[in-house]
Write a structure and sequence with these properties.
GO terms for molecular function: UDP-glucosyltransferase activity. With 193 residues, the chain is an alpha/beta fold. The chain contains seven helices and five strands. It folds into two domains: 143 residues, 3-Layer(aba) Sandwich (Rossmann fold); 35 residues, no CATH class. The mean pLDDT is 85.
């Protein structure tokens, strides 16, 4: 029976890693042919990522289906590269991990996989989309994972309805918005970036 390996790439924040690992748990529980490799970006300033033990809830019989690879730390980008935005700092940091991600996946394909177990996809966090290029270089299908709270997901699903109901721009509204996933009405200014 052919077995399937999926590589998960998490953004280096606990709020992204935990949902990604939960998704991996569901995938493994859904079909016993799946096993997962989770790539974790090591960051000295975020020690919780380095000590997080995500498989404590996994049944002992499925522990062999998980592999965690902590990628080597990289030198941070120089301040002149991201002086205008801290988001740019994170994007540059993720980008600097591309060679390590490619090497980890290449090593996995060369040493762990065979004709009975094949790599069927890479699932990358929404903030790690530069890894799509790595997947393309290795000719592996890539999918984007969007971790979200129920409230935010409800808001995103309600946006098309708001778009059809509003007759003015969101920034010009003078009344609060009623969004089904929120307990209280929301000021339009909260929805603007």
């Amino acid at each position: 029976m052919t077995k399937f390996e999926v590589v998960f790439m998490s953004y280096p924040a606990i709020g992204h890693l935990v949902p990604l690992v939960e998704f991996a748990h569901h995938l493994i529980n859904h079909d016993p042919r799946f096993s997962v490799t989770i790539l974790i970006i090591t960051m000295p300033e975020r020690p919780i990522l380095n000590t997080y033990s995500p498989i404590h809830d996994a049944p002992p019989s499925s522990l062999h289906k998980y592999r965690f690879i902590h990628l080597p730390a990289v030198d941070p980008p120089s301040p002149d590269q991201f002086e205008s935005s801290l988001w740019l700092l994170d994007a540059l940091l993720i980008e600097k991990h591309r060679p390590h991600v490619k090497q980890a996946i290449t090593n996995l394909m060369e040493t762990e996989l065979d004709s009975d177990r094949r790599l069927v996809g890479i699932i990358t966090d929404m903030f790690c989309t530069s890894m799509i290029d790595v997947a393309n270089e290795l000719d592996i299908p890539c999918y984007v994972f969007f971790p979200s709270t129920a409230t935010f997901l409800g808001f995103m699903l309600h946006l098309p309805i708001l778009d059809t109901q509003l007759t003015t721009e969101l920034a010009k509204l003078d009344t609060d918005l009623v969004i089904p996933s929120f307990a209280n009405p929301v000021s339009p200014s909260c929805c603007l970036l």
